[in-house]
Each structure stands twice: as structure tokens, then as C-alpha cells.
Amino acid sequence: MKKNNPLATRTPIYRDTGFHLVDIPTMQQAFANEHDYSRNPELYIYGRYRNPNVAAAEEMIMEIEGSQWSVLAQSGLAAIDIALSIFQEHDNPGSWLFFSEIYGGTNHFIDNVLIKRRGMDIHRFFPDGDEYSIEKFEATLRELRPKVVLFEAISNPMLITLNGDRFIEVAKRYGARVIVDNTFATPFLWKPLDSGADIVLHSATKYLAGHGSISAGVLSGNCPELEKAALEYRKLVGHMLSPDDAARLCEQLKTFDLRFQQHCHNAFELAKFLSNHSKIEKVLYPGLPTHTTHTNAVNLFGSKGYGAIITFDIEGKNPDEKQKRCNQFINLVKDHILLVPTLGDADTILMPIEPVWGDKYPFPGMIRLSVGIENTEWLINLISQALNSLD
Ligand code: PLP
User: Fold this and answer.
1) What's the gap in Å between 343 CA and the centre of ligand 1?
2) Closest C-alpha to ligand 1, atom 13
């Protein structure tokens, strides 16, 4: 598209819902081509099918992910719906295995759509305490022979990190299709396709877009049949991203590497600071040797970083004191660190754990921090001052 626009340095925004096909032979050609689902169609037909801005953003993600194809959707959950639905076959349903510590919205999708509406045979794989056991995983695969396995490399909010390469290798040995939701680790830290995963997906709403201002999802892979199936399913159910959001995503993707590097740097420095502070009881961060899955994080990510989420517990003699100090801390920082129920923004944001996760994590002094890309010293000073002022 760029080549046809000598004045433009980036793909102009194509808001057309239907594209101009000039004459009858061109229209016939466009519809004939459509069945090929080629990556760069010569002719566009209808906005819900394909769009040049969406294709341009997909090209950028392919480069970042190192994938043969990427398909964008209007949210992370839409990408999850596409990734899961393309493996669903009426005459070969099979059993599907999901790791238990995955995004709550994905768990609700599994319960309310896959099980309740689509009647699928779903199984959950639970960690042993704070870690997933590869031996138990293999035993489960031997018995269940699941058709599809889905996991996240870093869990939320306890940040359990698994050695994804080994889990993929074992799952593939037992013939499963492997889907990795890599939203928290991002391609900066790990590329599951290089280890044999069939599909990697992201809530691009988070680090890929990175500014808390675009809702988007993306799935990527290397197998052409899966690409075709993903493009067809997106068209059938209408999970298309808007051209405006795709164009903004293109701009924001240019700084993804730089941003994520700074996210990880800030989080690591802050985690070290917090773990040495007297008002902090516990810090969960995969980059700290005290995290139960630190070795997995080192094996999987090497020295690139450990992500940008920190979960920490404020010190207190009893639950009431913890709760009081937690509220006090949030009030002290809330003009700079806003309470926002998401993650991956360029600004540091936070969520108290108990009001959000309830009975699952009934820890009144616990906070999840999504660390941004601010100046490191400024951020640590802000948090240090708030902690030092606690009763
Ligand atoms: N996957 C993970 C790991 C997430 O954290 C989220 C949202 O928080 C999603 C998927 C869903 O993404 P979206 O909110 O863009 O639909």
C-alpha cells in the first residue's frame, strides 16, 4: 500500500467498510482471491474481512514475534476465541487441558462458553503449591491425551513462572496442539513458537500497544493451514480490529522493545528495593531468587528480564493492620500511581489483590503493581516516601 502513495511515510488509514473494485472482472478476481486467504491480498473487499492497516500492523507483529503469520483481533479475548475455535471439530472434539493459573477472563470463557455453551470436555492442570510439576504434567498427558493444551508462562497475580520450553516439548510428544498466552512475558522475553508451540497469543491491549489506550489481541503461528483457519474464523464471527486502532498500534509497536526493556528494568530495581524494606513482608517477582519459580524464569528468559508485574505484601501484625497500611499506602501514592484494573500501561498502575480476587487470594495487605516506564529513581523515591510514612 505504501508504494502506491508517494506522499505517505506510513500506511494511510483506510476507513472504507467496502473497497472500490472498479469493474466486474476486478470484483470477480477479488472474490476468487478471497478464498486463498493470502497474507497480502492484492484486492480488498470488505472491512470485516481484511484491511490494509490491520495487515500493516500484523506485518510488524510478525517481525517482533518471528512468526510466519499474525492475525489481529479487537481484544485479547477475541484472539483467544479464534485460537481455540480453530481447533474445535464437531466430529473430533477430544479433551482439552488448560493450566489453572491463567487470566480470570479466559477461565470465565472456558466455563461459560466452552463448557456451558459448546459442551466441550475441559480439564484443568493445577500447580503443586507454588509450582507446576513437569512430571505430573507428563502423567496427565499420558492418561488424558489432550487435543489442545493452553498455558501462560507467567501467572497472574502470583507470577508463577514455568519452564515453557520443557512443557511445550512434552505436550508435543503426546500429540497435543499447544497454545501459549504470552501476554505477561511478551516476545521480548520468550518466543514460544521457536520452541514448537502451534500458536502464541497476546492481549495486545497490554505491552504490545503499551499505553493503556488500545484494546486489541493477536495470535501468531507458522503453519499456513492455521493462518487460513484463523483468518476465516475472524471473518465469520467479526473479530476484526478497527483500521484506526491498527494504525495507532503500528506507531506504538515501533517502541515496543525499548518500552519493555525499561518496564523490566524498573520492575527489577523496584522489586529489589521493596524486598529490602522493613514495611514489606513479601515480594513476589520472578527475578528475585526468593521467588519459588526463579530458576524457571532464569532458564526461560536468560538475562533479558523478568517482566513488569510485582505483587507485594505490606507488613502488619495482623490482617487489620495490613489492611489499614495497604489503604494508607494506596492513598499516599494514588495521585501518581492510579488504581486501574489492567496492566501493561506506560504509567505504573496498581490493584489491591483482595477486592479483585476475593476468596482466591484473601490477603488484605497485598498489592499488584504493573510497573511502567517512568524514570527509575523517581518511581523508587515515590514508593519509598509512601512506605516510610506508613504508621
Ligand atoms: N490474557 C491475559 C494474560 C490477560 O491478562 C488478559 C487481560 O487482562 C487477556 C488475555 C484478555 O485481553 P483483553 O482484555 O485485551 O481482551
Assistant:
1) 9
2) 76
Q: What is the DSSP string of 124-145?
A: EE--BTTB--HHHHHHHHHHH-
Residue 71 · residue 51 · CB < 8 Å: no
Q: What is the pLDDT of residue 40?
A: 81
State residue 78's pLDDT score.
98
**Domain range 24-253, its CATH number among 3.40.190.10, 3.40.50.920, 3.40.640.10, 3.40.50.1980:** 3.40.640.10
Among residues 104, 297, 114, 73, the alpha carbon closest in space to that of 201 is found at 73
**pTM (2 decimals)?**
0.97
Between CA 95 and CA 117 the distance in angstroms is: 16
- The residue contributing the CA closest to ligand 1 atom 8 is 342
Dump pLDDT digits (tens) for 215-229: 999 999 999 999 999
Write down the pLDDT at residue 4: 60
Architecture (CATH level 2) of domain 256-388: Alpha-Beta Complex (3.90)
Mean pLDDT of 190-213: 98
Cell 511515510 -> residue: 9
